[in-house]
Amino acid sequence: MKKGLPVAFAAGLLLLSFNPAAAGDGQNADAKPAEILFTVQLILGSVSDEDRTDESLKNDPVIKEIRSLMKYRTFLLLDSSLVRSKEREPVEAILGKQRQYILFLKPTFDKDENIRTEIRFSYNFPGQKGTDLIQSILALKPGERTVLGVSKPQGIEPVDQGLILIISGKFVRRPASP
CA torsion sign, 110 to 146 to 138 to 169? Predict the structure, then answer.
């Protein structure tokens, strides 16, 4: 019996190494997940008679487009952040001068290598449970900027202001080919 043990043990290892469930549904077990670098800008847009837009935003083509589509005339950069994430791994970023905003991102990618991202943007009231302002799934082309906004967010007074998120993503490490 002791002679048969090494053979059975070796066969068990052989079976495990070809088990699709153990190898991640048939994908290469050594393949590293894609890494994505998000650039996030949190901007306060407001209705104002005078233009008091931050210098860093004055020539921004996205801000110019928003200005032509919406009533906002003044744009203030509240915060910006670089957020690095791996495919299918959630990541959070804390934004705002008082760290009152939480941005949750969970990226994947599709067959065309677009970045598909679950997003949740919340306002965190001091001492209370946070309130979701935005919850969506975005499809981003690498390098393209996407705009999300809340026209009357809680915690912002007066109500003639809105929060704008400008998000872009690019691959730091491309997805592994199937």
Answer: positive
Q: Is residue 21 part of a domain?
A: no
The more confidently predicted of residues 151 and 110 is: 110
Residue 65 counted as domain residue: yes
Q: What is the pLDDT of residues 77-122, one digit of tens each?
A: 999 999 999 989 999 999 998 888 999 999 998 778 889 999 999 9
The residue segments making up the domain with residue 124 are: 33-173
pTM: 0.75
Tell me how many domains the chain contains. Answer: 1
